[in-house]
Model the fold of this input.
Amino acid sequence: MKTISIAIDGPSGAGKSTLAKSVSRALGYLYVDTGAIYRTIGYGAYAKGVNPGDGQVVAALLPELEIGLTYGEDGLQHMTLNGEDVTEKIRLPEISLYASAVSAHPAVRAHLLEMQRKLAREHNVVMDGRDIGTVVLPDAAVKIFLTASPEERARRRCRELEQRGTPEAYEKVLAEMRQRDYDDSHRAAAPLRQAEDAVLLDTTELDFDGSRQALLKIIRERTAQ
Done:
């Protein structure tokens, strides 16, 4: 039976992971957080004291990084690095910039491409990231570009960090958000951009429930579910 893939792209802090996780449960699909996979490589570089901007050094590090992706009974994705569960560690603020830096290297993207495509061949998936609709799953049944203003995304990220017990100043989070937007959209390898056939969903004025309903409406209209 042919599988169905839902590709959700967008900038950092747009709520892709939280929303994709929720709609995947509603649809009974497997949720794949590709950002967490890149964060795991970023954390590997961070833990080894490697400069994440040095493509040759990062490429040489890849064979040493055994990345695992598992799902709990709750359907949530857990990341392991060389056997250690790093699901929480990869969400630390400093790892965001490491993830953005390592994801700019073609060697890293090529290394992870087949892992992501294999999941989509074997399961109905909701996959989110920066280049899912443009590079990873160009034939996805539904492509959505999820975004919100930088200011709103920074406010959301601040709330998230506060709930985790790792608060950061709004101005710092906003500056890092804008820097990551620039880095992600200007990198040579698979830059962040909206696929030509993707539906744009701006959630700046929507709360979580409103965003979730809008996302499900788009998906159901295009997959007749």
Q: What stands out?
A: Residues 43 and 89 are 8 Å apart (CA to CA).
